[in-house]
Write a structure and sequence with these properties.
Strand content: 15-25%
Structural class: alpha+beta
Oligomer: single chain
Largest sheet: 5 strands, antiparallel
Radius of gyration: 15 Å
Strand order of the largest sheet: 1-2-3-4-5
Low-confidence stretches: 1-11
Order of helices and strands: HHEEEEEH
Distance between the termini: 38 Å
Length: 136
């Protein structure tokens, strides 16, 4: 059932945040722990971030447009930045989808470390880019 934007969810409908909580729990391994960790870093970098659940089960973080998605695969997590190709990445966090004209991604495998400071800077840069679109 479709509802109007801004309309309250039905009591039986889970919020995007609840669905992301459930995904983290469902993964139950290092992927769930890492998804929870990057989610926390995203919220630290942008306290006004909006969590969404799109495309039949993909966590999405937005602020004036999509910042990134958090896809889980069998052997890794993929954080895809919608406009990653134009974001500054001085710490070379992007390690996947490097040939695309628009997106860039960070693939995280078990045992990988994430540079929390650089990651939060990347989130802030994505928010800033989204906020300035159309203001030229």
């Amino acid at each position: 059932m479709m509802r109007k934007p801004g309309a309250a969810a039905e009591p039986h409908e889970a919020s995007a945040s609840q669905l992301i909580d459930a995904r983290i729990k469902e993964l139950g391994d290092w992927r769930g722990a890492m998804l929870a960790r990057v989610r926390g870093l995203i919220k630290q970098a942008d306290p006004d971030v909006v969590e969404e659940w799109k495309w039949r089960g993909v966590p999405v973080w937005s602020h004036a447009g999509i910042i990134c998605t958090g896809e889980s695969y069998k052997a890794y997590l993929k954080l895809t930045f919608a406009k990653g190709a134009v974001l500054p990445d001085p710490n070379n966090l992007f390690n996947a989808s490097l040939d695309g004209n628009v997106r860039r991604a960070i693939d995280i495998h078990e045992g990988d470390e994430i540079d929390e400071t650089a990651f939060k800077e990347l989130i802030r840069a994505a928010v800033k880019l989204n906020a300035t679109k159309g203001k030229r």
